[in-house]
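Example is below:
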Amino acid sequence: QVQLVESGGGLVQAGGSLRLSCAFSGRAFGIYALGWFRQAPGKEREFVAAINWSGSVTDYADSVKGRFTCSRDNPKSTVYLQMNSLKPEDTAVHYCAKSPTAFGSTYMREHDYGAWGQGTQVTVSS
């Protein structure tokens, strides 16, 4: 059974940084693409970042390009989201997700993912 557990969220001032982690339990972490999404209060969940199965390709939402970096450590079965220059509009619950497609590329749509974590809250104060 696949399980994803996010950590690293918290309260930070605008301009600060946080690093989110998502620990994967299950088989064959290293062959699946992963993604990060977020949902702010009163808004729909939106794409943030994605990384392909090997870590060689990443994609980002325009709103976070140049500020966020997605990476993965396959031996540790963990994916990371380094968030720098945080803004109040980054405040949201952040989720990691796993694609069910082996050796896949990067995916930006929710329905391309089959397993989700419980989310971690990121709050950026102005």
